[in-house]
Amino acid sequence: MLYGITAAATALLLAALLAALLRGPALRLGLADRRQRQRRVPLSGGVAVVLTTCAVAVAGDRAGFAPLGEGVGALLGAAGAVAALGLAADRWRLKTRFLVAGTATAAACVVPYGDTGVPAGIAAVGWIACVALAFRALDHADGVVGTVGVVTAFGVAACAAAEVLDGLAVLLSVLAAALTGFLMHNWPPARVALGGCGAMFTGFLLAAAAVVARAGQDAATGAGVLFALTAVAVADAVLVVLVRRTAGHPLLRRGPDHLAHRLRRLGLTAAGATVLVGAAAFAGVLVGTLVHTGWLGARAPLWVAGGALLVVLGLWRVPARGGRSAARGARPAPGPQRDVRHRGRLRREAAPLVRPPRRPVETPARAMRRMA
């Protein structure tokens, strides 16, 4: 207990310090993201969270205060490999298929097939990869992925503690503390961001730990628990796919199609949208934890699924584009329209006004020549 508190406090302070110290080098190396097309936010938070989590967990294991236990060290190593893949994606913009393949390979190395069975283990590999990429997509607004990560880490840690997986529970507590220290710099307006490195590390570690905690139990109930623990990330991914499919846009393009974007269009502030998303994550995690520990029935995650579906369908109808003038109901300027090509796309804009030719001034001399 004492080591857990000490480890959490150390992880919080170390992550906050590293996130601030790595901010300058990240900007110089080009590891930055554009937020609202105005601010360049360095992606140093992910490196800080990964280094802090690994360092504190390994130090506790080596010192003997909190042994990670069988398989947890391999899980942390696989999560570190996924973090390296995410860092490469932040720097060189890797294609999504490489991220999927790398994350699935890492997941295949940590799934306990002996407890889950081969078919369920293969499904777990796909689910872990999808959650890791869904957490990467959650890093679309200030504070969102960090808040969801902290809440989910505490919930999965409670599930691990219920199964007497003390090493895994301590690891997730350290992750939650590191994300809290990162949030000191990521709360709107953010000074640093998590990036693919930290987001994929967080999503992979949480999803794989949840699979390990549920291994050997009822598969149907386990699927409901796993969904409830990550309901916000799943809802965000489903919303993006639905919006872009119906609009005919590419699935992998970047755009304001996520949960926080549409909540902002409803009039919420950046902090308000983050708090609302965090509250939704807490509700799903609470249901998943209570079902895992037996306090709720196996059908309780269906309520989470129904609520997530209503949120997705409701936010689907909210426009995610347009400036302030469009939001206030301003009409476009009258005049003829023309098609112009901008970056490979046709766009409608007002055609330039064509002035009539100027007539020469009628002087008496010109009038006499014309009459002659």
In short:
This protein is mainly alpha-helical. The chain has helices spanning 2-21, 23-28, 44-63, 72-92, 96-108, 113-116, 118-138, 144-162, 166-186, 195-214, 219-229, 231-247, 259-265, 270-293, 300-316, 324-327, 364-371; strands at residues 32-35, 39-42, 337-342, 345-350.
Could you characterize what this model shows?
This protein is globular. Helix 3 crosses helix 10 (195-214). The N and C termini lie far apart (113 Å). Helices cover 68% and strands 5% of the residues. The longest helix has 24 residues, at 270-293. The protein is mostly helical and 372 residues long. It has a two-stranded antiparallel ribbon. Strands 3-4 form a two-stranded antiparallel ribbon.
